[in-house]
TrEMBL record:
The keyword Cytoplasm applies. Catalyzes the condensation of pantoate with beta-alanine in an ATP-dependent reaction via a pantoyl-adenylate intermediate. It comes from the Bacteria. It comes from Ectobacillus funiculus. InterPro entries: Cyt_trans-like, Pantoate_ligase, Pantoate_ligase_C, Rossmann-like_a/b/a_fold. Belongs to the pantothenate synthetase family. The gene is panC. It catalyses: (R)-pantoate + beta-alanine + ATP = (R)-pantothenate + AMP + diphosphate + H(+). This is Pantothenate synthetase. It is found in: Cytoplasm. The active site is at residue 37. ATP binds at residues 30-37, 147-150, 176, 184-187. Its EC number is 6.3.2.1. Homodimer.
Amino acid sequence: MQIISHITQMQQVVLKLRETGKTIGFVPTMGYLHEGHATLLQQAREENDIVVLSVFVNPLQFGPNEDFDRYPRNIERDECVAKEAGADYLFYPSVTEMYPSKRTTTITVTSRTDVLCGQKRPGHFDGVATVLLKLFNIVMPHRAYVGLKDAQQVAVVQGLVSDYNIPVTIVPVHTVRENDGLAKSSRNVYLSETERAQAPSLYQALQLAQQAIANGERNPSIVRSIVEKQIVTHTDGEIDYVSIYSYPELEELDVLQGTVIVAIAVKFSKARLIDNLVLTVE
């Protein structure tokens, strides 16, 4: 596996690869890799000739009171995970490499952002869209692999690619979970022992919603109440939101039908956990 830190070098490498007919799979990350990232890399490995992983903690998507400085970083560990999962290249640029000067243009995401995590993080998805547009132009992948744990981000990225005719296929990959159901996340390290024991209740709440819908419940309010009761009863966490929307449009529904997302965010003492299920309702 080759580590590349400069944009021009990365572009030169992928241009030569594309000229030889190689397909490129890309996994963009902010590092501190876990099994969820490894799953993305493994699927990219199976479906492409070349796999590129990027590790870049993007300052544009962190608000003034968010955890940019304390976001976990361990590039040596990331290198090991990437090698074991079959990455061919690790693109690891600095902030000054990615943003060497004041930008003369900005990207503003105008849809799919005023709900869920985007509602309380103004500008967050503008930062996500900006860095991904840059990364897509640098890596020039045929396919990009993104985790459905952050399904709102997947919806925003799909919109970005469609709006700007970016020649990349977005491949959503199902959430990877611990044995007890907790979605794998870099932020799980912030949970206390007690909170870690309670955290699987989030996925159990989503499963209860799924079961209620399977049994014929079509009222979003009732399904939300089922989820909220499970979280309040079995955790000390503070509910940020329990929401149900159409997907990927992320619009309100009076009656559950079509493809919908049941999404939750819960604040513990030092970690805010998100999870969701995307369901097809007949």
